[in-house]
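Can anyone check this?
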Amino acid sequence: MPAGVSPEEGGGEKLSRRHAVKLSPAAQVSVEECSLAVGEKVGYKSVKFAARMNRAVVVFLDSIDKVNSVVESGVAIRDVFTQVMPLFNSARRVPGGCRGGCRGAPGGCRGAPGGCRGAPGGCRGPPGAPGGGLGARRGAPGG
């Protein structure tokens, strides 16, 4: 950062993916038009950075509350409604994989044909069904 530039003027703030929104406008829409449309909703000074990434436009804002308000309302670019999505997905991932299914299979979830697929109860399909299920065993008919 150049000498004499405060964080408010130059961008010394800590911005994360939570501060960004993603727009997927038509190909001929510029990054500037997207930034202006978002700025209309939350204030032009709230738009900190913008860039095109993989045919989408990513816009960083100064607060997470403003990100949420733009995501809820969307924006109009060239009189066409454009959906705005958060860059950060707030859903949490459950570490550890399988949780309690395939109890009857030798080796638990990993020993069942098809492995754990995250369906209720663990493995895919009902017991005895082709492709696995509770109690499925390697080499058993239908598995």
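Reply from J.R.: I decoded it. The chain has three helices and eight strands.
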